Amino acid sequence: MPPLAVSGGDPSGVGPEIAITAWKLRKTADVPAFFLIADPDLIAARAKSLGETIPLKVCDPDEAAALFPDFLPVVPLKNSQTDSPGVPLAENAAGTVEAIQRAVGYAFDGKAAAVVTCPIAKKPLYEAGFAHPGHTEFLAELAEAHTKKVCKPVMMLAGPQLRAVPVTIHIPLAEVPKALTSEEILAVSRITARELKEKFGIARPRLALSGLNPHAGEGGALGKEDDAIIRPAVEVLAAEGIAVRGPLPADTMFHAPARATYDAAICMYHDQALIPAKALAFDETVNVTLGLPFIRTSPDHGTAFDIAGKGVARPDSLIAALRLARKLADNTRK
Ligand SMILES: NC(=O)C1=CN([C@@H]2O[C@H](COP(=O)(O)OP(=O)(O)OC[C@H]3O[C@@H](n4cnc5c(N)ncnc54)[C@H](O)[C@@H]3O)[C@@H](O)[C@H]2O)C=CC1
Ligand SMILES: NCC(=O)COP(=O)(O)O
């Protein structure tokens, strides 16, 4: 089985240092073999500025697994990058995007078992002309270019106590009600149920769909979408044989006894899913993209510019992302 491909993310964020730390912890934290797609000079500079002496080896993906026990394998970018911890630079955007594209290419070529992405900051990439809301949508576009098939990506935050899936993702809150349709809820729920079975090995996945409004609309008194849009989707899913409940009031579906009744919460908007996921387990939760023809995981956190280069960034969520990517890749191969 090939190693995992890790894209370096925004190099001004914590991506380089959490990748370095994850490699340093490879033995004690049981970190699966990976190669980092990055500018080797920048990685060496960041390690040095953090007081680390890292044996780094520039290599091809094919050489990475053998090198990993003794060296941090770095597959070099064509676009060089400037080390500027905490201050994102537009000039680094090309390399950041190249790393993601290369990781996906290696997954399609069979040189990587899965893609693991370090965080990108959206704004500097948008300013450099990046036209996708985030990795999730960009990865789907890359998948479509490789397969010539339509690809519907679904974001899942997977932690030890909760899996949460937002139906709408990176759109302004004011646009959520009109973006929310029964068709969209059905598509996201079906992909989630299928992949919980195929990739996570859950024989009969149970879904819990949240409402949109307080108290799931309180019978229409506090909003109409719950009964008009979400409930019909729940009925269709149930008729298809999916174990599903909802719309559930979102304020009471995340305490421990409620979480024990489902395998994934399907939530109506970004923060409805990501707030409970990150509040319960910020350091252990992983962002997984479902619906792609390859495995992709990522830490749940962002670029953390406020702490980049200070040597305090925790590698835990990246390590969880690496472990989950390995597990899902192994499950899919069986
Ligand atoms: N997968 C990705 O590419 C993601 C990217 N982002 C992007 O990251 C940028 C910054 O987003 P924020 O909302 O500030 O969230 P953030 O996750 O970068 O930071 C939030 C807080 O958590 C802390 N933190 C984050 N990661 C940490 C770590 N590994 N160790 C210790 N503390 C950590 C930060 O210092 C900060 O105080 C945005 O541009 C956003 O779009 C956000 C989430 C995921
Ligand atoms: N809030 C989650 C996030 O921003 C990660 O998005 P993506 O870059 O993985 O699409």
TrEMBL record:
Its cofactor is Zn(2+); Mg(2+); Co(2+). It is an enzyme of class 1 (oxidoreductase). One of its GO terms (molecular function) is zinc ion binding. A divalent metal cation binds at H170, H215, H270. SUPFAM superfamilies: Isocitrate/Isopropylmalate dehydrogenase-like. Pathway: Cofactor biosynthesis; pyridoxine 5'-phosphate biosynthesis; pyridoxine 5'-phosphate from D-erythrose 4-phosphate: step 4/5. It catalyses: 4-(phosphooxy)-L-threonine + NAD(+) = 3-amino-2-oxopropyl phosphate + CO2 + NADH. This is 4-hydroxythreonine-4-phosphate dehydrogenase.
